Amino acid sequence: MEISQSIGCWWRGLQLWYNDQDYMQAIDAWEEAMSFISWANDELFVDMSLKNSAIQERKYLTLDGDAALLSELSPLLLFLAGCYLDAQEYQKARVTLRRCLALTSFDAERDSTTNKRDLFHRTVRECIFCVEEDPECLEPWVEARELVQYAIEVNQQLEQERLGEISEANSVPWSDPWQRPGFLYPIKNQDSVYDRLRHPSWCRLLEEKWGDIRNEFDRLIHRPGGARTLSTSPRHWPAVGSGEHRGGAGAHDGSVVAPGGDWREVVIFGSGENPRLAPCTSELLEQTCPDAVSLARQGGGEIVFSVLASGTHIRPHCGSTNLRLTAHLGLVIPENDEDHKRCSIRVADQWLDWEEGKIIVFDDSFEHEVINERSTLRGVLLLRFWHPNLPKEERGIALQKALDAKSDDELQRYSPPSPSNDGVMMLRAMEKSRCISCSRHGYSSIRLNTRSLTFECQCGQSIDS
Ligand SMILES: [Zn+2]
């Protein structure tokens, strides 16, 4: 039977991965595992979004054998897709994810246990990652929005069918296709944009002192006449996403700048900070919004001078978490000189304009894009601050959860799942347990016993408790 041949190859791949550390051969074995299944013809799926093609794939899946057995393959499919993404093989990743999405959404509908639904959510997140990384995907945000919409619909269907059985922890994390950060924490009454009446009180104080901040900003530009006279960015400011000035942090941010654009920053508080560059501004910030300063120092945000050269477009994307909000204090905003050219920011479905000396507040976990088509540079003071609807006593726990989720994601990429669905082995692989005999830990300590098909520590101790 085809499924049992697949499972045999799966075990062989695990032996190659854990015992021989021959990762390329392991991936070959898993590719072979998938070749025993009668998948639909890939040519049917040209020019279709991941979501639509996955729904199509469900029609073509041959579930003649035992559907439950076939669904056992979905953790392996998800892992294999991650390998392809690591190797930047986007076409293979897309095909694999389409199948995985078809299987896991089907499974979530059949069987609403936490495991099945969690696998479906993880698959949706991997699909989003795939479209965002694939350079041939021209509008990844459109596909990402559709994927989240699909996840929400599957979830709603489940809730209707099994009314009352689904706990909040078990449902999809998303409730709005516009809001899809890497880590989404349940926060009440979230909004994409916050009007002036809902600004924190320190916003007024910063607005009153904006002239002092602007003077310091101008001095940092090193140019007579200040920023107003520039169309390009100051060359001595680091580019966002260069990864150098922030100790590697924010390295991903630069990839959202459309070709030809130029986005630079000076960090006042946060990783790679230099508050002495702007002594007056940093003192003012410490006095008026200590919350934002402390968030930056805990690694949950940053306060920066941010400049966007003429002709820059920051493509639609979502921030990494919803634990914080973002404020922009307008410092240098180019005038609407000709042909109604645009200098504005879109958050969800709303376009906002900056004003010098005025603050706008938005949630960057919602899809947003920024555009400066005008002839001079745009400069703002950007601050992240704790989401006001997140209870103070939950801040530390929530930030820790966000960091843990990120490291779990990374560890999962190097921990191939087992057909025996051995949860104890996965705990070891994910650095969450140690050998009781030699205290080795992590996936590199794992060996497969090929006779009994069980996992052992490198020292011979069985991994089952
Ligand atoms: Zn051991």
TrEMBL record:
Q: Which GO terms describe its cellular component?
A: endoplasmic reticulum
Q: Which Pfam families match?
A: Asp_Arg_Hydrox (PF05118)
Query: Where in the numbering of this chain does the Aspartyl/asparaginy/proline hydroxylase domain appear?
Result: 207-388
Q: Which UniProt keywords apply?
A: Oxidoreductase
Single GO MF annotation:
peptidyl-aspartic acid 3-dioxygenase activity
Q: Which Gene3D superfamilies match?
A: B-lactam Antibiotic, Isopenicillin N Synthase, Chain
**Enzyme nomenclature, EC number:** 1.14.11.16
InterPro entries, per this entry?
Asp/Arg/Pro-Hydrxlase, ASPH, IPNS-like_sf
At the top of the EC hierarchy, this enzyme's class is: oxidoreductase
Q: Where is this region: Disordered?
A: 231-256
Q: Domain of life, per the record?
A: Eukaryota
Q: Which family does it belong to?
A: Belongs to the aspartyl/asparaginyl beta-hydroxylase family.
Give the protein's recorded name.
Aspartate beta-hydroxylase
Q: What's the source species for this entry?
A: Fistulifera solaris (Oleaginous diatom)
